[in-house]
Amino acid sequence: QVPLVESGGGLVQAGGSLRLSCAASGHTYSYYSMAWFRQAPGKERVLVAAISGSGGIIQYGDSVKGRFTMSRDNAKNTVSLQMSSLKPEDTAVYYCAAGPAFRGVVAGTAASWGPGTQVTVSS
User: Fold this and answer.
1) What is the pLDDT of residues 21-70, one digit of tens each?
2) Minimal CA–CA distance to 90: which of 12, 21, 5?
3) For an engineered disulfide with 48, which of 19, 26, 36, 118 has Cβ 3.0 to 4.6 Å away?
């Protein structure tokens, strides 16, 4: 399993920005695909963004395209999610996921998970 810890969540007004980070406490994660998911109370978990081990492939959920940007720094074993133009519907617990297979990480079926960080966007 891959140890992961998210940070950067908080309370922000609609239209504001937040930057989330996911840190891996183990050795290099450069060969692991990673992703951000989110889950609001009473709703299913959905994909926010995913990135391949090399950073060459980045995939975004339709609801965040043009507003969120995912990146990774393999030297620091971190991935980030820059969130702009936040909306109330972005309110959720955001989870970091990682695994050896991009397809499995995107699906959420073959990944390790962090404990999550709360993002709340007020009107």
Assistant:
1) 999 876 666 788 999 999 999 999 999 999 998 889 999 999 999 999 99
2) 12
3) 36
